[in-house]
Structures are given as C-alpha cells and as structure tokens.
Amino acid sequence: SDLIAADDADTEPPAVEDVNAENKELPSLTTRKRAREESVERREDALKRADGEVVFFENLVPIRIDLEADGRKIKDTITWNLDEKETTPETFASILCEDMGISSAAAQQLIATTIKRQIQALNQCYTRTVRGEELRLIELDLRLHDVCIKDQFEWDIVYPKNSPEDFAKALCIDLGLDGEFVAAIAYSIREQVHQHRQTLLNGDLLPEESLEPVQRAIRDIEDVSEWQPEVEILTEAQIKAWEKKEDREARHARRRR
C-alpha cells in the first residue's frame, strides 16, 4: 500500500539540467526503482485477498518536483499514497539524490520538504468526504518527444473506483501509444482531479464547471468530433513551440506553489 512513481511504466528518468556546465555527464540511473518495486509488490499483496478481490482503494495523489539544487534543475512527477507508512519523503529524497549523483544533504532536505508540503495540502483536500456524483471536464494536451495527444472527457472526481491508470492504459492501447504515455496521462488526470476537488471543497465552483449527470453512454453523432482523441507527430518547429509553452507553464506552476 505504498508509493507508486509516475515513471514505473518504462518512462524516462526525471529531467535533470546542470545549470553550470552544459556538457557535464550525469551518472547513470541504476537504482532509482528499488523502493518503488518493493512498494508495488507490497501494494499488490495488500490489494487482493486469495480470491483476487480488491479490498480497499489507495489515496493516490499527484506530487510534482520542480526545483534547483546543487546547481541542477530537478524535475519529476510521482504519485504518492496518502496512507503511506513505510516510505517517507526523506527516504524517497535520499534515493532520488543517490541516483542522480547529488550528495548534498541540503538538496535532499529541499526535495523532502517539497514533497511534504504538497502532501499536507493534498491531505486537506482528500480527507473530506464528498457524496454524490461530481462530473468535471478533464482535458489532455500532452507531448512526449515528437508525439502529441489531445483529448477531453468527463470524469467523476469523487468516485473512488475511478482509476486514472487503468483509463490511461486502455486509451494508449486504443491509440497505439507506448508505456511512457500511460504514466503521463494518468498523472495529468490526477492533477486535474485534485484541482477540481480543491475548487469544489473551497466553494469556488463556477456554474459552468459542474457537468450534468450522464444520461446516455454514447454521444450524439454531431458531438463526436469534439470528444475524440487526436494524436499528432510534431515537426521540429512545433517541438520548439511546445518546449516554450511547457517552460511557461512550469514557471506559472512554481509561482502557484
């Protein structure tokens, strides 16, 4: 019942940029998944009885690491279990720094503090019970390498059985996308679900944000084009435009945090 990282599905390691030396080589990441693999095994054991029945749902929440430490910019996204008892933010930060060749104790503490601050804020949002159905619009606009995916769909943000990971796997199978997109899509869903829950619980909900209950499982034919996923192979010029957009969004996100 533990930590699950967003890059468990063969994703790339977290982005690390040396701001002091452009050509400095980073050590290979060989031990990053040790604690994660052990925690996944414990999670699978805890989730199932002998007959395979799921016995509880984890309080998984999105954590974003975007900071500068030891002269490097460190970016990563992980999914954390709010009920986590064995792996602490300090333990995770220690493993992360070891894998990246960062020996500074101050850097480890900064990463751990960043995680704990977000956990505290998320706890306030997810420990409150919301009953009924709360449909919200989830929008995907993601890029990995030269592939971009766009999609939108309705999501019940308070139903505990809704699994972003299962949805992402099914979507990627349908679209022929590789495992990297599974983690990116699942994280994006969880991040937006949290934002919607926060708005709901704070009483800041706008009338247009709350969607009507679903009456039919199949949309009218005239609405299909608006609600179908799009996958695009980007040109070099488009990739550069995306990178600028992602840098802007990252700066805005840092200011909000």
What does this structure look like?
By secondary structure, the chain is an alpha+beta fold. The protein is 41% helix and 19% strand. The chain has 6 helices and 7 strands; from the N terminus they run E-E-H-E-E-H-H-E-E-H-H-E-H. Helix 2 packs across helix 3 and helix 4 crosses helix 5. Mean pLDDT is 79; it is low at 1-12 and 19-51.
Please write out the topology:
Layout: E1 4-5, E2 15-18, H1 34-47, E3 60-69, E4 72-81, H2 89-100, H3 105-126, E5 135-144, E6 147-156, H4 164-175, H5 179-202, E7 230-233, H6 236-256
Antiparallel strand pairs: 1-4, 2-4, 3-4, 5-6, 6-7
Helix pairs in contact: 2-3, 4-5
**Gap from first CA to last CA:** 27 Å
Structural class: alpha+beta
What is the share of helical residues? 40-55%
Which radius of gyration do the C-alpha atoms yield?
19 Å
**What global shape is seen?**
globular
Instruction: Count up the helices.
Output: 6
The topology string of helices and strands comes to EEHEEHHEEHHEH
- Note poorly predicted spans: 1-12, 19-51
Can you give the mean pLDDT? 79
Total count of strands? 7
What assembly state would you assign to the polypeptide chains in this entry? Answer: single chain
Proportion of beta-strand residues: 15-25%
> Could you describe the largest sheet, including whether it forms a barrel?
4 strands, antiparallel
